[in-house]
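All the exercises in this workshop are built on plain-text protein records. A record pairs a protein's sequence with a compact description of its fold. Read left to right, the backbone structure tokens trace the chain's path through space. Once this layout is familiar, the rest of the handout is easier to follow. Here is such a record, shown just as it appears in the course material:
>
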Amino acid sequence: MRVALFVTCVNDALYPSTGVAVVRLLERLGVEVDFPAAQTCCGQPQYNTGYRYETEPLLRRTAAAFAGYPYVVTPSGSCAAMLREHYPRIGRRAAAEGRGNDLAELAEQLAPRVYELTEFLVDVLGVTDVGAYFPHTVTYHPSCHGLRSLRLGDRPRRLLAAVRGLELVELPGAEECCGFGGTFAVKNPDVSAAMGADKLRHARATGAAVLCGADNSCLTHLDGMLRRQDPHVHTPGTLRPLRTLHIAEILAATDEEEAPAR
């Protein structure tokens, strides 16, 4: 089976280890992974801020970059939702405004081939035990796009529960937004910070060593707040009482190769 990795801007710029982990994980499961170099931003920041016309060239570019691949796999629920839900909406609006049907056709061809990582593992590959080893206590934060747009349900938790050595503990208020919300955090910083503080208070109460998620955008927000709350973590050699980690890096970890520290 051959798939294209849609790594996303956040991972490419800030968390390349997540992209590497996805490749290691999928290849371990017998999947051939390509990385189309023409991929760029999918346009989610522009679209969320109301710049629909400016998003259209990125739709066209993304569709061209992933043309011909039966599956497009991404370690980001928000970007998967952008391609699956918003691209067809953008295409239909363009067609209704008489500016051509090509965008609608491109979006409709791409959308059904896009899968968030945990969705691909469970629904397409049919696995929950991926042969991972991660001897730590973990609590899982489900992102809003994963919960409400993609309806990932318990797929991520089933994958985590099957990891050898991992103790999975429930996160109180798990379904509450962490406060990131893309441009929401920029436009409403005080509300965003308060929501993030609530999420971290719940995460700390679990006693977990790792706060795991399937979207590095949410984890960037939460990790930044953790670092501000615990400034001593910048001291070399100091172990953090709670750290964030993408689920791909946990699932890619084995006895021989541990997940990287953040």
